[in-house]
Amino acid sequence: MGLPFGIKPQANSHPVAEHSQSDSEASIIRDGDLAYVRQTAGNGASGYQEAVGAPVETRSPLGYHVNWLTIIFLNLNHMVGTGIFSTPATILRLTGSVGLALVYWVIGFLLAVAGLAVHMEFTSYFPNRSGSEVVWLEQVFPRPKHLFPVAFAVQSVLLSFSSSNAIVLSNYLWRIVGRAPDPWELKGVAIAAYTLAVITVIAHNKYSLWAINVIGALKLLLLLLISISGLVILGGHFPRIENPGINFRHGFQDTTSSGYSLSQAMVNITFAFSGWQNAFSMANEIKNPIPTLKKNATASLLIVFSLYFLSNIAYFAAVPKDIFLESKELAAAVFFRTAFGSSAESALNFCVLLSSFGNLLAVLISQSRQIREIARQGVLPWTEFWVSTKPLGTPIGPYLLKWGFTFLMIVSPPAGDAFQFVVSLKTYPDAIFHAAMGVGLLLIRRRRSRSETPRSDF
């Protein structure tokens, strides 16, 4: 079988399995230049990985605090940042019609499902390594050594900032205070908020995951409130709303024919769903990871899509399309003011602020595992600093790196441009690496079939 980058088994060679005396499954499988080593970790999972990769941590220094509920809320907190409160209006402007806007949310969900299936299969092959894409690209493309780890590290480390949500959080804190800040006041509060998030995750691993669960539950309740309100409005039981179904009567009227607008809408939809893969970065911290992730990562995506779709229905039921298009406020703000009156906007401001903070925590936790795994592969200098979890049992080095890059991104671009800038900057490189993983999945299936590696549990 031809393997990428010139790795080929010898012409008349066959895979050779080496067994230990105490185990019926082979401990090493050799296939030409490749050697697959079977290793077991403290999360109860075992699997074969190419020997050139970073070794499996038999005992996770970060503990095993990620349970089924935390998986759901890690993903939910990442997906539900500020997108569902603002993106629906953007999607409507770009697509031109309510009908196509709703279709785009379904397409975004289907793309996320496809990505979820890829992540699940990769995790079933390497269930005892945290870091997700970092590990998988290393294992799929082992030669030349470090090529894909370095490429992914450049993208991951240089783009490891969360400036957009920090700026949004700052905006809503100033709205609650009732004062319009100047640009540096806005940036100063954003830096303070992000610093608080970093201190939270550095201080204690287990308690920061508890905070994720609490904030995730509050987000869930908020989206349920919006969704149920929308159904009540559509049923005609909301006296403040006249003619609630008007936006749905000619749902595809005014649909745009602009390819640029439609492609931009797809970028925004993809960004709104990003985060469904969050918990996969912590596989080695999950007991029995394959069935646990399979069930609960799927559940989190289904929950978020259902609430996203129903929230869009609620927005379009309560707010006339022309008002929606003309407003420069959050879609959720227009909805709350129309449905509940202006006094409800203050409560919404606090909810969006809290949602942004939860997103900061979820992204910090998962990306710290990826940066730590990049260091374990030998890509970053001063490996011990990045890998160490001393003295608090948390990866302080990756957290400080993220703080540094986020600080730079907050103070550098104009605050108003940060969100769309980050959407574009992050989405396109992600798409390239996702395509590489799709190709890699076919390669790894072929290699495992040739070497007669035992089937995974996927």
UniProtKB/TrEMBL annotation:
A GO molecular function assigned to this protein is: L-amino acid transmembrane transporter activity
The UniProt entry's GO CC annotations, sorted and at most eight, read: membrane
Its main subcellular localisation, reduced to a broad class, is membrane
Q: Transmembrane segments in this chain: where?
A: 66-86, 98-120, 147-174, 186-204, 210-234, 297-318, 347-366
Reply yes or no: does the keyword Transmembrane helix apply. yes
InterPro entries given for it?
Answer: AA/rel_permease1, AminoAcid_Transporter
Give start-end ranges for the coiled-coil region(s): none
Q: What is this protein called?
A: High-affinity methionine permease
